[in-house]
# Entry
Amino acid sequence: MRYQPDNLNYRPIYTASELQHLHQLAGKLSLAELLVTPRNLEAIGIEFIYSSAQLEGNGYSKADTLALFNMGQTAGGKQYSDAVMLLNLRRSYQYLLAQLGQPPDWPDFVKTTHSLIARDLVLPEEAGVVRRKHITITETDYIPLDNPQQLDAELKYLLHTAAAIHDPFEQALYLHNNLAYLQYFIDCNKRTGRNSHNYALMNAGHFPCIYPQESYRDYINGLITYYESGDYRPSAIYHISAYEQTAARYGTQPDIDIARPPKKQEPQ
# Structure
């Protein structure tokens, strides 16, 4: 099945009650607490980076990831490209944080994010620029566009449409699914979509979504359904669940350090 340009036309993604629920969850999460402490920024960043990499099949464990970030130590027996993926995701997260509080320049954000995420994973001339080769996508018969001029025009329309979406949760999922659907870049489109999803949330003052890596199958099934039918529903259900889990784990508590849970008091 071939690319359907009408999929990029915006239509409501979540129901009114789902949006109310998501905003209530966001009210339990303190972005200010995250942003005020470098330790917290690093801790949440590691969670987002690690979970995003796991959704791509990265073989590093959490301990491997921490050793890579803290000591520059690669994991024995693991693919070097897995280390590159994690380091690139870290750079792209740091770039995301640097853009907060400014009016979004979506074309620049998406292309710069991709150039950081794809560094040393694609040819240098393919990072951050329109795809010029035919690609196929595993597990689906969906056939993306091939023509670079059409891809440029569709990305422009996609980002113009996204910028006009007022609700950040709607905007976030629109960006996520349609950047993956368009396949503008030669590779790393889903990773770019996940960063764009969280940038939309964080720039609106909301806590980022930490993707539960154990639900890889639900995540992929949601995207495949969208590729083949334009139906957001499975992806919407997945992202609601992911944000519920984020709120349950990081919900605001007084005097809590996100980076380290409070120690239990020993009996006297």
Q: What stands out?
A: Residues 253-268 have pLDDT under 50 and may be disordered. The CA atoms of residues 112 and 128 lie 6 Å apart. The chain has one domain: 5-249.
